[in-house]
Amino acid sequence: MPSKSAIKGRGAQLNVPNRFFELSHEMRDDFLEFCQKEGEIADKNKTQYLEVFPKTIVNKVKSPDVGMAYSMNAYQGCEHGCIYCYARNSHEFWGYSAGLDFERRILIKKDAPKLLEAYLKKKSWKAYPIVMSGNTDCYQPAEKKYRITRQCLEVFLKYKHPIGIITKNSRILEDLDVLKALAKDNLIGVNISITSLSEDTRRILEPRTATIKKRLETVRILSEHGIPVNVMIAPIIPSINSHEILPLAKAASDYGASSIGHTIVRLNGAIGEIFTDWIKKTMPDRAEKVLHQIESCHGGTLNDSRYGARMRGEGKIAEQINNLVRLSRQKYFKGKSMPRLNCNLHESFKNGQLKLF
Protein backbone atom coordinates (compact mmCIF):
# COMPACT_ATOMS: atom_id res chain seq x y z
CA MET A 1 0.00 0.00 0.00
CA PRO A 2 1.17 3.60 -0.64
CA SER A 3 2.73 5.43 2.30
CA LYS A 4 0.46 7.70 4.34
CA SER A 5 2.48 10.71 3.15
CA ALA A 6 1.68 9.99 -0.51
CA ILE A 7 0.06 12.83 -2.44
CA LYS A 8 -3.56 11.76 -2.69
CA GLY A 9 -4.99 11.08 -6.13
CA ARG A 10 -1.71 11.57 -7.98
CA GLY A 11 0.68 9.19 -9.63
CA ALA A 12 3.92 11.19 -9.51
CA GLN A 13 5.03 12.17 -6.02
CA LEU A 14 7.41 14.97 -7.02
CA ASN A 15 8.25 17.54 -9.66
CA VAL A 16 11.52 16.72 -11.37
CA PRO A 17 13.58 19.57 -12.89
CA ASN A 18 12.78 20.52 -16.47
CA ARG A 19 15.80 19.49 -18.57
CA PHE A 20 15.45 22.65 -20.69
CA PHE A 21 15.72 25.03 -17.71
CA GLU A 22 18.85 26.07 -15.83
CA LEU A 23 16.86 26.81 -12.67
CA SER A 24 14.59 24.44 -10.75
CA HIS A 25 11.98 24.73 -7.99
CA GLU A 26 12.47 22.85 -4.73
CA MET A 27 10.05 22.33 -1.82
CA ARG A 28 12.40 22.75 1.14
CA ASP A 29 11.89 21.14 4.54
CA ASP A 30 12.16 24.49 6.36
CA PHE A 31 9.33 25.87 4.21
CA LEU A 32 7.17 22.83 4.96
CA GLU A 33 7.91 23.22 8.67
CA PHE A 34 6.92 26.89 8.50
CA CYS A 35 3.61 26.03 6.78
CA GLN A 36 2.87 23.43 9.44
CA LYS A 37 3.51 25.89 12.28
CA GLU A 38 1.40 28.58 10.62
CA GLY A 39 -1.42 26.19 9.78
CA GLU A 40 -1.00 26.86 6.06
CA ILE A 41 -1.22 24.35 3.20
CA ALA A 42 2.10 24.09 1.38
CA ASP A 43 0.66 22.32 -1.65
CA LYS A 44 -3.07 22.49 -2.37
CA ASN A 45 -2.80 19.71 -4.98
CA LYS A 46 -5.32 21.39 -7.29
CA THR A 47 -5.64 20.88 -11.04
CA GLN A 48 -5.25 23.99 -13.20
CA TYR A 49 -6.74 24.27 -16.68
CA LEU A 50 -4.67 26.62 -18.86
CA GLU A 51 -5.85 27.66 -22.31
CA VAL A 52 -3.27 27.62 -25.12
CA PHE A 53 -3.51 28.65 -28.76
CA PRO A 54 -1.56 26.36 -31.13
CA LYS A 55 -1.45 27.16 -34.83
CA THR A 56 -1.86 23.53 -35.91
CA ILE A 57 -3.49 20.45 -34.37
CA VAL A 58 -2.61 17.42 -36.56
CA ASN A 59 0.88 15.99 -36.07
CA LYS A 60 2.85 13.82 -38.47
CA VAL A 61 4.21 10.89 -36.42
CA LYS A 62 7.75 10.08 -37.49
CA SER A 63 8.40 7.18 -35.10
CA PRO A 64 8.15 3.96 -37.16
CA ASP A 65 6.98 1.65 -34.36
CA VAL A 66 4.03 3.39 -32.68
CA GLY A 67 1.31 2.14 -35.03
CA MET A 68 0.03 5.52 -36.23
CA ALA A 69 1.00 8.04 -38.90
CA TYR A 70 -0.99 11.08 -37.74
CA SER A 71 -2.23 12.14 -34.33
CA MET A 72 -3.87 15.09 -32.59
CA ASN A 73 -4.16 16.10 -28.95
CA ALA A 74 -6.96 18.29 -27.63
CA TYR A 75 -5.22 18.46 -24.26
CA GLN A 76 -1.58 18.48 -23.10
CA GLY A 77 -0.84 16.99 -19.73
CA CYS A 78 -3.20 14.39 -18.30
CA GLU A 79 -5.03 14.29 -15.00
CA HIS A 80 -5.27 10.50 -15.10
CA GLY A 81 -1.80 10.48 -13.53
CA CYS A 82 -0.53 7.16 -14.92
CA ILE A 83 2.91 6.86 -13.38
CA TYR A 84 4.50 5.14 -16.39
CA CYS A 85 3.12 7.50 -19.09
CA TYR A 86 5.57 8.20 -21.91
CA ALA A 87 3.77 11.51 -22.61
CA ARG A 88 5.13 13.04 -19.40
CA ASN A 89 8.32 14.07 -21.18
CA SER A 90 6.37 16.21 -23.67
CA HIS A 91 5.21 18.52 -20.85
CA GLU A 92 8.76 19.82 -20.60
CA PHE A 93 8.41 21.35 -24.08
CA TRP A 94 5.63 23.54 -22.65
CA GLY A 95 7.83 24.73 -19.78
CA TYR A 96 6.54 22.41 -17.05
CA SER A 97 7.77 19.40 -15.11
CA ALA A 98 7.08 15.85 -16.27
CA GLY A 99 6.12 14.98 -12.69
CA LEU A 100 3.23 16.54 -10.79
CA ASP A 101 2.92 19.41 -13.30
CA PHE A 102 1.95 16.89 -15.97
CA GLU A 103 -1.07 15.86 -13.87
CA ARG A 104 -2.00 19.23 -12.41
CA ARG A 105 -1.40 21.73 -15.22
CA ILE A 106 -3.60 20.72 -18.12
CA LEU A 107 -3.31 22.74 -21.31
CA ILE A 108 -6.61 23.22 -23.14
CA LYS A 109 -6.79 23.67 -26.92
CA LYS A 110 -10.23 25.16 -27.45
CA ASP A 111 -9.51 25.91 -31.10
CA ALA A 112 -8.81 22.24 -31.89
CA PRO A 113 -12.12 21.61 -33.78
CA LYS A 114 -11.62 24.71 -35.95
CA LEU A 115 -7.99 23.81 -36.67
CA LEU A 116 -8.98 20.22 -37.49
CA GLU A 117 -11.68 21.34 -39.92
CA ALA A 118 -9.24 23.61 -41.74
CA TYR A 119 -6.75 20.73 -41.97
CA LEU A 120 -9.26 18.25 -43.38
CA LYS A 121 -10.37 20.77 -46.03
CA LYS A 122 -6.84 21.28 -47.38
CA LYS A 123 -6.67 20.38 -51.07
CA SER A 124 -3.37 18.61 -50.53
CA TRP A 125 -4.69 16.36 -47.73
CA LYS A 126 -5.41 12.74 -48.63
CA ALA A 127 -7.47 10.88 -46.05
CA TYR A 128 -5.52 8.72 -43.63
CA PRO A 129 -6.55 7.72 -40.08
CA ILE A 130 -5.82 10.41 -37.50
CA VAL A 131 -5.52 9.18 -33.91
CA MET A 132 -6.95 10.97 -30.87
CA SER A 133 -4.77 11.07 -28.93
CA GLY A 134 -1.26 9.94 -29.66
CA ASN A 135 0.01 11.65 -26.53
CA THR A 136 -2.52 12.42 -23.76
CA ASP A 137 -5.97 10.95 -23.19
CA CYS A 138 -8.72 12.74 -25.14
CA TYR A 139 -11.32 11.63 -22.55
CA GLN A 140 -9.48 12.71 -19.41
CA PRO A 141 -11.50 14.64 -16.76
CA ALA A 142 -11.10 17.97 -18.60
CA GLU A 143 -13.33 16.64 -21.39
CA LYS A 144 -16.34 16.73 -19.06
CA LYS A 145 -16.04 20.52 -18.93
CA TYR A 146 -14.69 21.45 -22.37
CA ARG A 147 -16.11 18.77 -24.72
CA ILE A 148 -13.36 19.41 -27.28
CA THR A 149 -13.13 15.73 -28.22
CA ARG A 150 -16.87 15.65 -28.89
CA GLN A 151 -16.59 18.67 -31.19
CA CYS A 152 -13.68 17.08 -33.07
CA LEU A 153 -15.63 13.85 -33.55
CA GLU A 154 -18.44 15.88 -35.11
CA VAL A 155 -15.92 17.41 -37.54
CA PHE A 156 -14.66 13.94 -38.50
CA LEU A 157 -18.23 12.81 -39.07
CA LYS A 158 -19.09 15.90 -41.15
CA TYR A 159 -16.18 15.23 -43.49
CA LYS A 160 -16.45 11.44 -43.41
CA HIS A 161 -12.87 11.08 -42.27
CA PRO A 162 -11.39 7.98 -40.54
CA ILE A 163 -10.33 8.33 -36.91
CA GLY A 164 -8.75 6.18 -34.22
CA ILE A 165 -9.23 6.79 -30.50
CA ILE A 166 -7.00 5.74 -27.60
CA THR A 167 -8.44 6.09 -24.09
CA LYS A 168 -8.78 4.48 -20.68
CA ASN A 169 -11.86 6.42 -19.66
CA SER A 170 -15.47 5.27 -19.87
CA ARG A 171 -16.46 8.87 -20.66
CA ILE A 172 -16.18 7.88 -24.33
CA LEU A 173 -19.69 6.41 -24.01
CA GLU A 174 -21.08 9.94 -23.72
CA ASP A 175 -20.32 10.27 -27.44
CA LEU A 176 -21.84 6.93 -28.42
CA ASP A 177 -24.25 8.59 -30.87
CA VAL A 178 -21.42 10.12 -32.91
CA LEU A 179 -19.32 6.96 -32.69
CA LYS A 180 -22.22 4.87 -34.01
CA ALA A 181 -22.67 7.27 -36.92
CA LEU A 182 -18.96 7.01 -37.75
CA ALA A 183 -19.07 3.22 -37.46
CA LYS A 184 -21.82 2.98 -40.12
CA ASP A 185 -19.21 3.98 -42.71
CA ASN A 186 -16.33 2.12 -41.04
CA LEU A 187 -14.65 5.37 -40.00
CA ILE A 188 -13.84 4.58 -36.37
CA GLY A 189 -11.62 2.23 -34.37
CA VAL A 190 -11.28 2.48 -30.59
CA ASN A 191 -8.37 1.38 -28.42
CA ILE A 192 -9.18 0.89 -24.73
CA SER A 193 -6.20 0.60 -22.40
CA ILE A 194 -6.58 -1.97 -19.61
CA THR A 195 -3.43 -2.70 -17.64
CA SER A 196 -4.78 -4.83 -14.79
CA LEU A 197 -7.85 -6.64 -13.48
CA SER A 198 -6.95 -5.61 -9.93
CA GLU A 199 -8.47 -2.39 -8.61
CA ASP A 200 -5.68 -2.13 -6.03
CA THR A 201 -3.11 -2.13 -8.83
CA ARG A 202 -5.18 0.26 -10.96
CA ARG A 203 -5.51 2.80 -8.14
CA ILE A 204 -1.78 3.17 -7.61
CA LEU A 205 -0.70 2.89 -11.27
CA GLU A 206 -3.47 5.06 -12.76
CA PRO A 207 -5.08 6.97 -9.88
CA ARG A 208 -7.69 9.05 -11.75
CA THR A 209 -8.73 6.64 -14.49
CA ALA A 210 -12.02 4.77 -14.86
CA THR A 211 -12.32 1.55 -12.87
CA ILE A 212 -11.52 -1.75 -14.54
CA LYS A 213 -15.19 -2.76 -14.35
CA LYS A 214 -16.22 0.41 -16.19
CA ARG A 215 -13.55 -0.06 -18.85
CA LEU A 216 -14.58 -3.64 -19.56
CA GLU A 217 -18.20 -2.54 -19.70
CA THR A 218 -17.15 0.17 -22.17
CA VAL A 219 -15.55 -2.49 -24.39
CA ARG A 220 -18.80 -4.47 -24.28
CA ILE A 221 -21.09 -1.53 -25.09
CA LEU A 222 -18.94 -0.25 -27.95
CA SER A 223 -18.63 -3.73 -29.45
CA GLU A 224 -22.38 -4.37 -29.19
CA HIS A 225 -23.00 -1.19 -31.18
CA GLY A 226 -20.71 -2.25 -34.01
CA ILE A 227 -17.74 -0.10 -32.98
CA PRO A 228 -14.54 -2.17 -33.25
CA VAL A 229 -12.40 -2.21 -30.10
CA ASN A 230 -8.78 -3.16 -29.59
CA VAL A 231 -7.73 -3.62 -25.95
CA MET A 232 -4.25 -2.34 -25.18
CA ILE A 233 -2.61 -4.40 -22.42
CA ALA A 234 -0.03 -1.68 -22.09
CA PRO A 235 2.35 -1.21 -20.64
CA ILE A 236 3.23 -4.59 -19.21
CA ILE A 237 5.43 -4.05 -16.16
CA PRO A 238 7.41 -7.05 -14.90
CA SER A 239 6.30 -8.23 -11.44
CA ILE A 240 3.44 -5.71 -11.33
CA ASN A 241 0.99 -6.80 -14.04
CA SER A 242 3.00 -9.26 -16.13
CA HIS A 243 1.24 -12.20 -14.43
CA GLU A 244 -2.14 -10.94 -15.70
CA ILE A 245 -1.60 -11.24 -19.46
CA LEU A 246 -3.74 -14.33 -20.05
CA PRO A 247 -6.59 -13.27 -17.71
CA LEU A 248 -6.61 -9.79 -19.27
CA ALA A 249 -6.75 -11.21 -22.78
CA LYS A 250 -9.59 -13.56 -21.84
CA ALA A 251 -11.57 -10.73 -20.26
CA ALA A 252 -11.05 -8.54 -23.32
CA SER A 253 -12.29 -11.32 -25.59
CA ASP A 254 -15.24 -12.14 -23.34
CA TYR A 255 -16.36 -8.51 -23.42
CA GLY A 256 -16.23 -8.35 -27.20
CA ALA A 257 -12.84 -6.88 -28.16
CA SER A 258 -11.67 -7.61 -31.70
CA SER A 259 -7.97 -7.77 -30.81
CA ILE A 260 -5.32 -6.97 -28.21
CA GLY A 261 -2.07 -5.04 -28.34
CA HIS A 262 0.78 -4.64 -25.87
CA THR A 263 4.00 -2.84 -25.04
CA ILE A 264 6.64 -3.50 -22.39
CA VAL A 265 7.18 -0.53 -20.10
CA ARG A 266 10.11 1.77 -20.85
CA LEU A 267 11.04 4.73 -18.68
CA ASN A 268 12.59 7.34 -20.92
CA GLY A 269 13.82 10.79 -19.96
CA ALA A 270 12.39 12.15 -16.73
CA ILE A 271 10.04 9.17 -16.32
CA GLY A 272 12.81 6.97 -14.96
CA GLU A 273 13.36 9.25 -11.96
CA ILE A 274 9.61 9.78 -11.42
CA PHE A 275 8.83 6.05 -11.58
CA THR A 276 11.79 5.11 -9.35
CA ASP A 277 10.72 7.61 -6.69
CA TRP A 278 7.12 6.38 -6.93
CA ILE A 279 7.83 2.67 -6.66
CA LYS A 280 10.20 3.09 -3.72
CA LYS A 281 7.44 4.92 -1.86
CA THR A 282 4.57 2.74 -3.07
CA MET A 283 6.05 -0.76 -3.31
CA PRO A 284 9.25 -0.65 -1.25
CA ASP A 285 9.28 -4.42 -0.79
CA ARG A 286 9.64 -5.10 -4.51
CA ALA A 287 11.01 -1.83 -5.89
CA GLU A 288 14.52 -3.05 -6.70
CA LYS A 289 13.21 -6.28 -8.21
CA VAL A 290 10.84 -4.44 -10.56
CA LEU A 291 13.44 -1.86 -11.58
CA HIS A 292 16.06 -4.53 -12.32
CA GLN A 293 13.58 -6.59 -14.35
CA ILE A 294 12.63 -3.52 -16.41
CA GLU A 295 16.35 -2.90 -17.01
CA SER A 296 16.79 -6.51 -18.13
CA CYS A 297 14.21 -5.89 -20.87
CA HIS A 298 16.10 -2.88 -22.23
CA GLY A 299 19.77 -3.74 -22.37
CA GLY A 300 20.47 -2.94 -18.73
CA THR A 301 18.89 0.51 -18.62
CA LEU A 302 15.49 2.02 -17.85
CA ASN A 303 15.83 4.31 -20.87
CA ASP A 304 15.41 2.65 -24.26
CA SER A 305 14.95 4.66 -27.46
CA ARG A 306 15.86 2.01 -30.02
CA TYR A 307 13.21 1.68 -32.70
CA GLY A 308 12.00 -1.88 -33.01
CA ALA A 309 13.29 -2.93 -29.58
CA ARG A 310 11.93 -0.26 -27.25
CA MET A 311 8.27 -1.39 -27.41
CA ARG A 312 8.87 -5.15 -27.16
CA GLY A 313 12.10 -5.30 -25.19
CA GLU A 314 14.71 -8.04 -25.30
CA GLY A 315 16.11 -10.71 -23.02
CA LYS A 316 14.45 -13.61 -21.20
CA ILE A 317 11.74 -11.67 -19.36
CA ALA A 318 10.72 -9.75 -22.47
CA GLU A 319 10.68 -13.00 -24.44
CA GLN A 320 8.36 -14.60 -21.87
CA ILE A 321 6.01 -11.61 -21.98
CA ASN A 322 5.90 -11.50 -25.77
CA ASN A 323 5.30 -15.25 -25.96
CA LEU A 324 2.41 -15.00 -23.49
CA VAL A 325 0.79 -12.26 -25.58
CA ARG A 326 1.24 -14.37 -28.70
CA LEU A 327 -0.36 -17.36 -26.93
CA SER A 328 -3.22 -15.13 -25.75
CA ARG A 329 -3.97 -14.08 -29.32
CA GLN A 330 -4.01 -17.67 -30.51
CA LYS A 331 -6.21 -18.78 -27.61
CA TYR A 332 -8.75 -15.96 -27.40
CA PHE A 333 -8.63 -14.00 -30.68
CA LYS A 334 -8.23 -16.61 -33.37
CA GLY A 335 -9.89 -15.39 -36.56
CA LYS A 336 -10.57 -11.92 -35.10
CA SER A 337 -8.95 -8.61 -36.02
CA MET A 338 -9.57 -4.89 -36.24
CA PRO A 339 -10.95 -3.78 -39.64
CA ARG A 340 -9.10 -1.32 -41.87
CA LEU A 341 -10.72 2.09 -41.70
CA ASN A 342 -12.44 3.59 -44.73
CA CYS A 343 -10.37 6.31 -46.39
CA ASN A 344 -12.45 6.52 -49.58
CA LEU A 345 -15.31 8.82 -48.57
CA HIS A 346 -13.52 11.94 -47.39
CA GLU A 347 -12.53 13.36 -50.77
CA SER A 348 -16.18 13.76 -51.75
CA PHE A 349 -17.00 15.57 -48.50
CA LYS A 350 -14.16 18.10 -48.32
CA ASN A 351 -16.57 20.95 -48.92
CA GLY A 352 -19.00 19.65 -46.31
CA GLN A 353 -21.32 18.02 -48.79
CA LEU A 354 -21.24 15.22 -51.35
CA LYS A 355 -20.03 16.29 -54.78
CA LEU A 356 -22.54 15.73 -57.57
CA PHE A 357 -19.94 15.40 -60.35
From TrEMBL:
GO terms for molecular function: catalytic activity; iron-sulfur cluster binding; metal ion binding. The keyword ATP-binding does not apply. Keywords: Iron, Iron-sulfur, Metal-binding. PROSITE patterns: RADICAL_SAM. Residues 64-310 form the Radical SAM core domain. This is Radical SAM protein. SMART domains: Elp3 (SM00729).
